[in-house]
Structures are given as C-alpha cells and as structure tokens.
C-alpha cells in the first residue's frame, strides 16, 4: 500500500484530540447524563420529551446537526434541514410508484434507464406464502451439485428469454437494483427524494425482499415450486472464489464483464480493494478472510445498528452509515468481482450494473444468510437484541413484482421471519466463529515514550495516516460497572462527518493502539474497521456524506487496554479523497 511506505518515511501526520468528542458532542453528554445511554430503546419518554431528542439522533444516527460544519459547497442533494425535523411523527421510507431516470456514473454501460415497467393497477399488499408450501433450503454452490446449478442456469436463461417489458425478465430483475440505488425510485409524498437502499438499516431487508421474489420467479419459470437459490458462500474456504460454473463461457451464468484475473481458481480476498492486491499465499488469504469475518460478524457487530446499519427515515439525507457486513465483505466482494479495467468496475463493482451478473443473486444470498446467522446464532446467543423495534424501520416499504407479474408492496416487517417466507439455509459451516484475531507486539500502542502527537483541528482531509488520541467517556473508569451492564452495552468509536469523494472508490482503515500500524499483519486485532465505498452514481465532484461506527469493547479487552483513559486511533487512507469531521467514543445500548 502506498500509504505504508510514505508513513515509514516519516511523514506520519499526527493529530490530537483533547476531548473524547472532537466536535460539539459535549452538549450531548450534558443533555443525557451517564445513566441514559442515548441509544437505549428503553430511554425514558420523559427524557425524550424534555429534550425533544430522538433516541437515535444522538449517538446512533450520526448527529450531523452538530457534527459537520464542513458540509458545504459541493452541491448537496438539498435535503439539509430535513434532518432537523423533530417530534415523533412517523417517517418510514415508503417507495412510490413514481420512478425517474436515475443518476448513472460517467462511462456507464447501457441500458441507461432502470425503472420497472409501469403497473396497470395499484400495488397489492404483500401476503405470506401458504405455510404448507415446501421449505426451500438455500445451499452453497459448492455443495448443491451440478444438477442444481444447471437448474439455476436454466432459470436465468428463461428469465433472459422473456421480453424486456416483462418485469420478471432478467433485464428487469437486474434493473431493480439499479432503480433502488440511483435515485430512480422516489419516496411517497416526497417526489424530490429518492430511495437509497445502501448504507443504512434498509440494506438487509431490501435485498431479502428482492431475492425472495427473484427466487419465486425462477421457481415459477422452472415449474419447480421448491427451487431454492444457490448461495455463494465466500466465507468458508471451499467457497472462497468464483464458482467454476459461473466461469463457463457457454453457461447463461457467465458474465464477460468481470475481473479476468479473479477467475477460478483464484482465492477471493474478503478485504479486497482496487489497487490493493496483496502478495499472500492462498493459506494466508484464507486465514485472513476468516479473521475479517469474525470482526465483521462477531466483535464488530454487537448491536443491531452496528450490524444492520444506521436509521434512515423519510426526509433524511441518504446513506447515514452501513453495518459491518455491508462494508465488508459485501462491498469488497462486489469490487473484487467487477472488472477493474473499467472506470466503474462493472458489472458487480458498481450499484447500477451489479444485478446484471447472475453471480449477484448467489452473492446476496450469502449476505442474507449472514443476516440469519447473526440474528439467530450470534445476537440471540449472546442475549442481545437482534431487530430494531422502531416503526420507521418496520413500516418502510418497497415495490417489487412477484412471480405473477403483480406489483407488490412489501414492508421490512414482512421480511423478518425467513420461515414465514418459506426458506432457510443449509449445509454451511461457520469456521470464522472462532477466528478471533491475534494482537501484534511492538506496534507502539500509546504516545508515552513514542512519537509525540501534534495538535490538529478537525475536520481534516485524510491525505496521510492520522493518529488521534481519543478520550474515553468517564464511564470507562467506573471499574465497578456490573457484569450485566457490561454485557448489554458496547463502547463505540464514532467517526462522523465523513465526506468521501462520490466519484471514486474510497477506502480507509481504522487501527486501534497501533501507531506503527504498518506492522500489523492483515487481519490483526488492532485493525478494528474498514471504510469502503463503491462509486456513487452520477456524483462526480460531489461527496458521499456518511458516518462510521467501530465497536471497541472486545478489541480493547484483547489489547489489555480496558483501564486506559484514552484510545489511540489511526486512520489510514488507502484510496480516494476523504474528509473526517470528528471522532468520539460513546457507550451504546440498544
Ligand atoms: C395495504 O396496507 C396498508 C397499510 O397497512 C393499508 O392502509 C391499505 O388499506 C392496504 N391496502 C389494501 C388494498 O389492502
Ligand atoms: C511475494 O511473495 C513471495 C513469496 O512470499 C516473495 O518471494 C516475493 O518477493 C513477494 N513479492 C513482492 C513483490 O513482494
Ligand atoms: Cu448490493
């Protein structure tokens, strides 16, 4: 990585933050004192009504109101102010039938229009399938066998042979993803605002609904009511690479617009980034992948918002912040699969065209499986909350065509129980569940005796690695926190006011207590998080505004730093231009 060499050459830029919150969050602390965790769902109504605060607005939702004086000239989506609405009026994101031409990046490949065919009648409300329907079991491509894969290939071929005016055609199915991420679909009652299903709490539910109908359309065309979508389980060693059948040029599953150097048997790098090819053995890549999975699924995803993504309501600026798995492996595997010689890394490497690759659906099948794994085996297993109970999430809705070509309105509430949707996952192991990363000795964790820190003010452009001493809230010093309390809360590093170049792939990494971060091997414990965006359609010269949250509790425990007053955070740019509004550490409870 370029940044590694520049830093070891002594150009390491160091910063210092004297308060645990770099910006105006001191007010936050005053308003909601220690006992009231701002993200707690049980936060008392009296505190809420006294302060007029939304439980998510403070530390969960990216309090941009106070945090981003830097937001400025770049031609915003003119939604400033929408965020400041107060009161408890319900604001789910409701998809309207109105669909306009979305914003595609320069050099996009046709078609340039991705709205679905107009429906002759009003959408019908979703109803659950007959509970007597056979339970579809989605299994990994490497497990299901050739016969099943031939069925999937036939389903794709049948979809490809439907006229493009048919919403069940492959052409239209591919366009669904485009319509929901380029601002084509509009919000009901807000024709000026698009629906964006990435970088927020809509990510998992939307893609589940999308796959649900895609799978039923496939089953219908095959005349096989029990047909289940195969999944690309890149998180287990046997699945880490594009399955052979997708690389067969004679197969309907083949897509010529993929990265040629990643054709099988290349082992996938779940931490991949363009220009970031690592010189590692397959065994090293596999080990690293398992550690990335552990971080994204276990230690980094201890609260619903950390896993599912940040709240996004009608009128809000889009892309408030994704959950761990959306950053990686979701984004990273999209980019790894796309053709890096194309400006937008089509097809898989960019939102508007990703659905054109038949590998997209098994890829998202695996993402959906990880949601089930997290929900049922990790969150519930640790007696933590798994779903939001916020009506704005539950009542958000999407419009999709079903297997009978009827337009259906489906809500987030409708997709929370896979059993009711009559599918499940089978035959896939979770080898990463025990892949807890190791700590790295000799990386100069704390300032004392090391390089001195200079004082620099936020916001800061991340042109070089930046090391910041972030104070922990006083609560960390209360060693007598009960075990019960500790089990329910998470110490979270909030990186707010992030402005990333929308016209580029942007990545930076977050290290904890490792001022000599370049000594940390891939997958090391000190690497606590990765920010990675795909190109944002049609936004050259504009910025993606978002935030990031990094869970710290287990990392600090492993580093033996639970008693420290501060945490040393190093932000390391890998690619693209990005500005950081500020950092703070908060305790969250959901
Ligand atoms: C669909 O559901 C909404 C919300 O529950 C309800 O208001 C509406 O009447 C329903 N429409 C139909 C046609 O059942
Ligand atoms: C890549 O790795 C191999 C084997 O570990 C090593 O011999 C080689 O020097 C490395 N190449 C580069 C460019 O780092
Ligand atoms: Cu996606």
From TrEMBL:
GO BP terms in the entry: pigment biosynthetic process
Residues reported to bind Cu cation A: 177, 198, 207
Oxidoreductase among keywords: yes
Cysteine disulfide links: 114-178
Cofactors named for this entry: Cu(2+)
Residues engaged in binding Cu cation B: 330, 334, 364
Pfam family, one: PPO1_KFDV
Signal peptide positions (record): 1-26
Keywords linked to the UniProt accession: Copper, Disulfide bond, Metal-binding, Oxidoreductase, Signal, Thioether bond
Top-rank lineage group of the source organism: Eukaryota
Gene3D superfamilies membership: Di-copper center containing domain from catechol oxidase
SUPFAM superfamilies linked to this entry: Di-copper centre-containing domain (SSF48056)
Molecular-function GO term, any one: catechol oxidase activity
UniProt xrefs under InterPro entries: Di-copper_centre_dom_sf, Polyphenol_oxidase, Polyphenol_oxidase_C, Polyphenol_oxidase_cen, Tyrosinase/Hemocyanin, Tyrosinase_Cu-bd
Positions of crosslink type 2'-(S-cysteinyl)-histidine (Cys-His): 181-198
Recorded family membership: Belongs to the tyrosinase family.
Protein's name in the database: Tyrosinase copper-binding domain-containing protein
Annotated organism of origin: Digitaria exilis
Higher taxonomy: Eukaryota, Viridiplantae, Streptophyta, Embryophyta, Tracheophyta
């Amino acid at each position: 990585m370029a940044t590694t060499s520049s830093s070891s050459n002594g150009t390491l830029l160091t910063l210092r933050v004297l308060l645990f919150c770099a910006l105006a969050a001191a007010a936050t602390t005053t308003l909601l004192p220690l006992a009231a965790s701002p993200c707690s769902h049980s936060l008392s109504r009296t505190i809420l009504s006294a302060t007029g605060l939304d439980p998510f607005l403070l530390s969960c939702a990216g309090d941009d109101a106070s945090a981003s004086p830097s937001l400025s000239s770049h031609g915003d989506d003119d939604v400033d102010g929408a965020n400041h609405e107060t009161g408890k009026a319900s604001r789910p994101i409701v998809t309207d039938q109105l669909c306009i031409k979305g914003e595609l990046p320069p050099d996009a490949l046709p078609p340039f229009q991705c709205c679905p065919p107009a429906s002759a009648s009003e959408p019908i409300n979703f109803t659950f399938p007959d509970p007597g329907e056979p339970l579809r079991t989605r299994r990994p491509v490497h497990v299901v066998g050739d016969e099943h894969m031939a069925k999937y290939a036939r389903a794709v071929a049948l979809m490809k042979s439907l006229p493009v005016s048919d919403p069940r055609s492959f052409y239209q199915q591919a366009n669904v993803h485009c319509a929901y991420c380029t601002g084509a679909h509009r919000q009901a009652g807000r024709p000026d605002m698009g629906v964006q299903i990435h970088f927020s709490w809509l990510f998992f539910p939307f893609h589940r609904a999308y796959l649900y109908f895609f799978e039923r359309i496939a089953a219908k065309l095959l005349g096989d009511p029990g047909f289940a979508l195969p999944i690309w389980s890149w998180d287990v060693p046997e699945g880490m690479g594009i399955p052979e059948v997708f690389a067969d040029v004679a197969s309907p599953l083949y897509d010529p617009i993929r990265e040629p150097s990643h054709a099988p048997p290349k082992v996938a790098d779940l931490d991949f980034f363009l220009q970031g090819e690592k010189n590692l053995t397959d065994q090293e890549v596999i080990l690293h992948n398992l550690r990335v999975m552990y971080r994204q699924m276990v230690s980094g995803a201890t609260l619903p918002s950390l896993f599912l993504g940040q709240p996004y309501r009608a009128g809000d600026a889009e892309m408030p912040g994704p959950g761990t798995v959306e950053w990686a492996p979701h984004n990273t595997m999209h980019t790894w699969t796309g053709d890096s010689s194309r400006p937008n890394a089509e097809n898989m490497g960019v939102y508007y065209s990703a659905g054109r690759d038949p590998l997209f659906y098994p890829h998202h099948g695996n993402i959906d499986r990880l949601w089930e794994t997290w929900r049922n085996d990790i969150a519930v297993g640790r007696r933590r909350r798994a779903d939001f109970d916020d009506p704005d999430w539950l009542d958000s809705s999407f419009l999709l065509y079903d297997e009978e070509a009827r337009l259906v309105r489906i809500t987030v509430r409708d997709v929370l129980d896979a059993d009711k949707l009559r599918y499940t996952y089978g035959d896939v192991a979770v080898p990463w569940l025990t892949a807890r990363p190791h700590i790295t000795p000799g990386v100069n964790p704390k300032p004392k005796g090391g390089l001195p820190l200079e004082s620099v003010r936020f916001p800061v452009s991340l042109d070089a690695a930046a090391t910041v001493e972030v104070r922990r809230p006083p609560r960390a010093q209360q060693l007598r926190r009960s075990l019960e309390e500790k089990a329910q809360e998470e110490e979270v590093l909030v990186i707010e006011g992030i402005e990333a170049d929308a016209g580029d792939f942007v990545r930076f990494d977050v290290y904890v207590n490792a001022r000599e971060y370049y000594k940390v091997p891939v997958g090391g414990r000190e690497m606590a998080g990765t920010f990675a965006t795909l190109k944002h359609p049609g936004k050259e010269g504009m910025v993606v505004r978002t935030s990031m949250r990094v869970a710290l509790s287990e990392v600090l425990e492993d580093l033996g730093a639970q008693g420290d007053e501060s945490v040393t955070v190093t932000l390391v740019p890998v690619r693209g231009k990005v500005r950081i509004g500020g950092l703070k550490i908060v305790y969250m409870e959901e």
